[in-house]
Write a structure and sequence with these properties.
With 246 residues, this protein is α+β, with helices and mostly antiparallel strands. Helix content is 21%, strand content 41%.
């Protein structure tokens, strides 16, 4: 009975010990695709390999004009002293002559970040694109969130009138009034590529969220204590000189 009880507890123990994982969801033409079911080899810091062939088949079946050449994500879970980061990247296109829905949104999220921490902070979102066969009517819209705090949405648009290769970027930020841990980071991106009978507009995209915290006063004191002795001595001499001059 003891062995049986121990074996029965293994799944529970495994779930408790399992690190947080990156999750990616696509909504195309009103249909939700859980990309996690198509990914293998993932870790808490790397999304793993997506079965692009199956993903593209699902998109075509849902009436979407889009096809992916790559899709993945990464993070520095569970965070670092410099900030917690979550990134999404990939390649998407509309093959020449293909028609269908051009509505597609990707949501990437990961929870359980435990560092850094502080009384407040900043959420930064940045995105870039490498457009090809895409004129100025082609773009994507992106933003990022820290728990329920979301940056303003911003556009990354092709800068070429003739559809020549170009690589624009953009970003936005939002203040975090209360930086509590653990926290969740999320990236959002939606695409607006224009179908063509002769061209295949392509967007090699990336979007990244970074949450940084303002150190607590105690952390600042600790940091100052850790300064090299010559710097401390220099500060003391300057203060003594200032007092003498006054």
């Amino acid at each position: 009975m003891g062995v049986a009880c121990g074996l029965a507890m293994l799944p529970v123990a495994n779930r408790a010990a399992r690190a947080e994982a990156i999750s990616i969801t696509i909504v195309a033409n009103g249909t939700t695709i859980l990309v996690d079911a198509l990914a293998t080899g993932g870790t808490s810091t790397n999304y793993g390999t997506v079965d692009i062939v199956t993903l593209n088949s699902l998109l075509a079946g849902d009436g979407s004009a889009y096809q992916f050449s790559a899709l993945g994500g990464s993070s520095n879970w569970s965070g670092a002293s410099t900030g917690g980061t979550l990134s999404l990247s990939g390649g998407i296109s509309i093959p020449a002559g293909v028609t269908g829905s051009t509505s597609l949104t990707i949501t990437e999220t990961e929870s359980g970040f435990t560092t850094p921490s502080g009384p407040s902070g900043t959420l930064s979102s940045s995105s870039s694109a490498t457009f090809n066969d895409a004129n100025t009517s082609n773009s994507h819209l992106a933003d990022s969130s820290f728990n329920a705090i979301t940056t303003p949405a911003y556009t990354v648009a092709s800068t070429s009138i003739l559809g020549l290769p170009n690589s624009p970027g953009n970003g936005a930020s939002a203040s975090i009034p209360s930086f509590a841990t653990p926290y969740t980071l999320t990236n959002f991106i939606s695409f607006s590529l224009t179908p063509s009978s002769s061209l295949s507009p392509t967007d090699g995209f990336s979007v990244s969220a970074k949450a940084t915290a303002i150190p607590e006063p105690a952390s600042v004191v600790t940091m100052l204590i850790g300064l090299p002795l010559p710097l401390v001595g220099l500060a003391w001499l300057r203060r003594r000189t200032a007092v003498a001059n006054s």
